[in-house]
């Protein structure tokens, strides 16, 4: 019997425990070896649990799980950096295999932990850490190992995708959509990890590391939140043939990696534009394989638990056959990160302007001065309501930022109402 100890039995942990208990015979058959639960650590023993497991297996001391001599596989589904990191490190040093769903931890300390696993000759698997139930780590690591991946683009945060879907389809405001996400249990009381893009940035760091075979951490990702998106932006995007998504995009430019999480307009014809509600999707482009898209549920006990149990079965098979999972040496190679100012982008820009002769010429000269050319311009409203909606051609991020700064200094510009990247057109 291969014994599995759980650190945490919340949303994900209880789905994992339930699967291991209810489908034990089937999983044992599939793995070629029986898989049983040893110990489970939680914060409170008083909480009622959806899984029925013998009382003596529960503990409030996570170290008991890690130190249990009968436990061969430790599953970390408690979240947070500490004590999760210390516990995983200790488990690996004791020769135990580890499965984790913890993106925050893997994005920043995954390299160190993978080095510990290599040293100990054990497995550290983390399929569930990115996009919940979608198999994406293993395909990138194994199936696409022979290709050269040059771009990974994803909608990897279900909460923000739910909010943007509601805004797009119901015409509601950001605040109303966030409130609905809260009511349905899709959003935490403090939504900043989702809305400010931290969660997506951690996932993009993990994806980029594996796709480009170099160690990328959360701090390498340029990040912009989506709380400023208005119903007017969504309407404008629709008029122009775009859908707004919180996109995580990492690209290989020469030997440098450009990685960013930001709201972006995407042509409605692109498959990522059709990803609705809490669904996640990862779009991968490789020189040989061309375009691939992985779509599914990025959160929730069932989907995330499925990915965790998949990793447990892989480890059980490895133990039974005396082998190890493929790790890859990416974490040993520091990534060369492109200066965000040099990244090339197109922008959608909305300006409130004075309705008087010469306004367009003044604005166009600012764009021209910074070498940013205008692809389209549309005037809406008159007098106090006069608004210009522009789309630029591809130019550097730095040139765009300098343009925006000079535009707001013009007497004829009342305010820069909105600006957003346009991604996935012929120009990039
Ligand atoms: N939820 C998802 O859809 C999802 C999707 C992908 C990845 N993940 C990742 O999976 C991990 C778990 O998420 P979750 O949603 O399952 O979290 P959760 O529902 O909050 O569960 C956390 C569990 O860990 C236990 N715990 C926390 N700190 C502990 C400590 N110091 N000692 C002992 N037990 C402790 C809690 O005990 P009590 O039950 O007693 O409070 C609870 O059982 C996180 O890293 C998360 O990012 C989650």
User: Shape, please?
Assistant: elongated
Mean pLDDT: 95
Proportion of residues in helical segments: 25-40%
User: DSSP strand (E) fraction?
Assistant: 25-35%
Low-confidence sequence ranges: none
Structural class by sheet pairing and helices: alpha/beta
Oligomer: single chain
Total helices: the number is 14
User: What integer value in Å does the Rg equal?
Assistant: 24 Å
Concise description?
The protein has 428 residues and is α/β, with parallel strands linked by helices. The chain has helices at 11-22, 24-31, 62-67, 84-93, 103-120, 137-143, 158-170, 174-183, 192-195, 198-212, 231-240, 301-321, 359-369, 397-409; strands at 2-7, 35-41, 58-59, 73-76, 97-100, 124-125, 149-155, 222-223, 242-253, 256-267, 279-286, 290-297, 344-353, 374-380, 387-392, 395-396, 413-422.
Structure description:
The longest helix has 21 residues, at 301-321. This protein has helices at residues 11-22, 24-31, 62-67, 84-93, 103-120, 137-143, 158-170, 174-183, 192-195, 198-212, 231-240, 301-321, 359-369, 397-409; strands spanning 2-7, 35-41, 58-59, 73-76, 97-100, 124-125, 149-155, 222-223, 242-253, 256-267, 279-286, 290-297, 344-353, 374-380, 387-392, 395-396, 413-422. With 428 residues, the protein is of the alpha/beta class. The model has no long low-confidence stretch (mean pLDDT 95). Strand 9 and strand 10 form a beta hairpin. The protein is built from 14 helices and 17 strands. The strands form two sheets. Strands 7, 8, 9, 10, 11, 12, 13, 14, 15, 16 and 17 form an eleven-stranded mixed sheet that branches. Strands 3-2-1-4-5-6 form a six-stranded parallel sheet, sandwiched between helices. NADP nicotinamide-adenine-dinucleotide phosphate is lined by residues 8-13, 41-44, 47, 62, 77-79, 83, 101-103, 128, 132, 299-300, 304. NADP nicotinamide-adenine-dinucleotide phosphate binds at residues 8-13, 41-44, 47, 62, 77-79, 83, 101-103, 128, 132, 299-300, 304.
